[in-house]
């Protein structure tokens, strides 16, 4: 039950670090703008202005003065660009502005809905944005179209929301999820390439070490024997001067060969990458390391304890690498979380610990090669390493290092501890379904809208008045006679047909029917009206009801 509640809980950012993180994130995005992206934004703004403002191809608004068109163009452009910083706010503002008055803006809402679906990552925040947009749409609909009410009016309102807001929002969310999936697959492929390179490098280094060991054990031993025997032979009194010079040349060549062999072994044992600076990377340099992390924006702290003890070089450097790897992992996988580095001199060993608080936003775990290398470094220093998650949700790296220069247990690391350092990757079953929920909801919206309008269009409309009947009815006839001649049957689902009509006569009861003759170019429906008072027909009239 607790895990279910946590999944539905909103991921709220730390308010203390939110402004700095927001500015840092968008500064990096601004620095990554290319000419292609800038040109794309300019083209999108031009398309928006053509469709919604001038000439307003899909605007449908009445003629406005030039200053009003200019203000609307500036406002729409500002809302469109606002999506780069606050996509949800831009969508909500545009929903109210566009649907609360009779002017263009459909293209703007569609673009902002897509952008909000693409950019709002947490599904809880995305759901909240969609619900608030629906609420604003309902309020704006009541303000702008008070005449279109009833079940048909509600259906039209939900249809507009579904096609203009919900559908682009879901399509944008689907595109974002598919983009994230592709990026994850690319990262996985790159990681596999790095793994293959690392394995290949380890095999080469292992073979180099074996060759160097063989040369040291066999060839070096034989050269040493040659040198010793040559030195002993030079002391023989029975040798002549020429033989003694030849023995000295032989001994000198053996010594030179041993020096060259040491150089070759050093080359074979040298790694492909230069060794780190062991003088600079010591336990005393952890203070500088933590201070550098603070300057980079990490909320890091350092705690020292105990009486400092002189440490062997590899132990001191291993302690530095533990702090370095812990700070790197915390900034990479738990951005915004507090980190604490502890260096404590115990009576029999040095304890180095790095732990971070639960992150505001969880990032996917890495491959764990840094921890594997760290475990090998600690093993070579004669210590023990522990890595794992904390019960409260944070992460901890801790090592116990000896004060003496202790040799490692063996030349080759065991395979089992390396596996313990990295948590086995669990198959992310939800990833293969990424985007399916969004596209299914988008399909449901389309099916419901199309099916609803198909059903409405298939309903027969028999309650219509033709021209002949309308002309034959005269004012002054009795109500019973007129009602008997009026057609019966199903009324068309037009919502409120009274809003565009003239005021009804005082004290009269009026009936509204659809005329047989319609002109669809007028974008309105012709309605006929018969008003009765005192048992007689007092008025008959027609008007155009806006769609």
TrEMBL record:
The keyword Phosphoprotein applies. One of its GO terms (molecular function) is protein dimerization activity. GO terms for cellular component: membrane. The chain crosses the membrane at residues 42-61, 67-99, 120-140, 152-171, 433-456. It comes from the Bacteria. SUPFAM superfamilies: ATPase domain of HSP90 chaperone/DNA topoisomerase II/histidine kinase. Its EC number is 2.7.13.3. It catalyses: ATP + protein L-histidine = ADP + protein N-phospho-L-histidine. Keywords: ATP-binding, Kinase, Membrane, Nucleotide-binding, Phosphoprotein, Transferase, Transmembrane, Transmembrane helix, Two-component regulatory system. It is an enzyme of class 2 (transferase). Gene3D superfamilies: 1.20.5.1930, Histidine kinase-like ATPase, C-terminal domain. Coiled coil: none annotated. It holds the Pfam family HisKA_3. This is histidine kinase. The keyword Kinase applies. Residues 207-272 form the Signal transduction histidine kinase subgroup 3 dimerisation and phosphoacceptor domain.
